[in-house]
Design brief:
The chain has 165 residues and is α+β, with helices and mostly antiparallel strands. 37% of the residues lie in helices and 19% in strands. This is N-acetyltransferase.
Length: 165
C-alpha cells in the first residue's frame, strides 16, 4: 500500500502569503540555483540535517547536487517523496526547501521539514514559511498525523524513535 492515496494530486505551485516567494516541486534543472543556496548555508544545514541525513557534505559537488535533484524529481513523479523549492517570483534563486516524506519513524503518516537560506533566517520570509507549512499540509495533504521534524519533534528525538516498518 502506498503512503498516499492513489488519486492524490500533489500541489505544483504554492504562494507563500504576504511575500513574493512560492513553492514548487524541485527539478534537476534547478541545480544552478540550488547548489549556491545549499552550499551558501551548508554549515547551518549540516547542523540541522547532518546527523539524520548526512547532508549537505562539505565536499558536495555541483554534479552530486544535480544527481540528488534528479533523484528528487523522479521521486516526486512517482509520489515516493516530495522536495519543494522555495523560489523568488522570477525563479532566479532557490531560497530554501520543504521536504514531505513517508514516515521513517513510528508515530506519523508523513514527515515534513524545511529550511531557508542563511540570509532569510529570522526574517519575514522564514516566519511566513513557518506559518504556511503546517496550514498547507493540513489543507492539501492527506495526512492524519504529520510530524514536523525539527519543529514539533527535535531531530535528536526523531532519531531516537523506532523505525517505521
Amino acid at each position: 500500500m502506498s503512503w498516499l492515496p492513489d488519486d492524490f494530486v500533489h500541489p505544483v505551485y504554492v504562494p507563500v502569503p504576504d511575500t513574493a516567494v512560492h513553492l514548487r516541486p524541485i527539478r534537476e534543472a534547478d541545480t544552478a540555483l540550488d547548489y549556491p543556496a545549499v552550499m551558501g548555508s551548508r554549515e547551518r544545514l549540516w547542523e540541522i540535517f547532518g546527523p539524520a541525513w548526512s547532508w549537505p557534505k562539505e565536499t558536495m559537488t555541483y554534479e552530486e547536487d544535480r544527481i540528488d535533484l534528479l533523484r528528487h524529481e523522479k521521486e516526486i513523479a512517482a509520489h515516493q517523496s516530495f522536495n519543494y523549492a522555495l523560489l523568488n517570483e522570477e525563479e532566479t534563486a532557490v531560497l530554501g526547501c520543504v521536504y514531505i516524506d513517508p514516515p521513517e519513524r513510528t508515530g506519523s503518516d508523513g514527515e515534513v521539514s524545511w529550511w531557508v537560506v542563511d540570509e532569510l533566517v529570522g526574517g519575514e520570509v522564514e516566519r511566513a514559511l513557518d506559518a504556511l507549512v503546517p496550514q498547507w499540509i493540513a489543507a492539501d495533504w492527506p495526512f492524519q498525523q504529520p510530524r514536523y521534524v525539527g519543529r514539533d519533534t527535535t531531530w535528536q528525538d526523531w532519531l531516537a524513535l523506532p523505525r517505521a516498518s
